[in-house]
Write a structure and sequence with these properties.
53% of the residues lie in helices and 10% in strands. It has seven helices and ten strands.
Amino acid sequence: MTGIVLSASVRQNLLSLQSTAALLATTQSNLATGNKVNSALDNPTNFFTAQGLNNRASDIGNLLDSIGNGVQVLQAANTGITSLQSLVSTAKSIANQVLQAPTGYTTKSTITSSAALPAGSTSTNLVDGTAIKSGETLTIAATNAAAGDVATSFTFGATTSLAQLNTALAANQLTASLDSSNDLVITTTNDAASSTVGTVTLGGTTGSATFAAPVAPVADPVSQATRASLVNQYNNIVTQITTTAQDSSFNGINLLNGDNLKLTFDETAKSTLNITGTTLNAAGLGISSLTVGTGFLDNNSANVALAALGTASTTLRTQASAFGSNLSIVQIRQDFNKNLINVLQTGSSNLTLADPNEEAANSQALSTRQSIAVSALALANQSQQSVLQLLR
């Protein structure tokens, strides 16, 4: 072949045809792959820039799974808190039934003065100068120290009414009255029906009145059986509060059982969110089981339970608000990452994707050029064919 000599016109047309064929092959490849940059040889800058954008989009996409799991962990915690709120409300309802139930005792605790006041004494003036004198101090020990009572001390004046004495006794959950014998009788209130009146002493300017030993309350068996049933119902709710908190997990993470959650939002691990869990079982909420025979005996015990349940309800609302705020943050970042992935992938596509319309037009134009080049090559060969005719 080295001995073959082509004319300048033939060589020029041949080169043009080869160039057109190469361009046509590239155009057809672009149409087939949908890319105008398929390798670093096509356009190094665009190729490696697009590759970097796609790699970042892929890394962020991998984080979406863990972010999605984080959303579900928070959803599980919120679902648990909602159920716990319902259980606490049910427990409140049971405690309120105690307040609406009969007192629970056929007779409340009393203590009575052993010397009757003179017949002239009335509820408007307990001081008569004989049984109870002005300046005499009445001291009653705490009726129920566990319920927060403090001892009561009251000093009689020249004119002390029964209403004034009752005002002083109210803080110790006691009431005073005069019986049919005109004795001064001190009795526990309904709230402290299970308690016994504290010891009474009179000091100062002593009169003739003294107080007998306190009489203990007498329980009503039927009423106490009802209260015992309420205790059992209450304890069942307390158990369910603990188990519900323990079951509020997703993928092994339970924010209601003391677990923590850390979420990463970017590929460099510099953007994170740490969510601290809490223990919201019965103990964590400050709610404890009751004992039949000592729980719900009177209104005081029911009020103590209601106070604890009120605090628990507030704790749940506060925690629900915190988890709800965190959930909003996570969902916002989840949407942001999805949109960012789209931006990165679009940017990569802009650098590498081919325009099908443009490539189709190029293909048509190159096909036409190829046909023209073939015709031109044929014309260039005509002079050589004339020489061949002479040789024939």
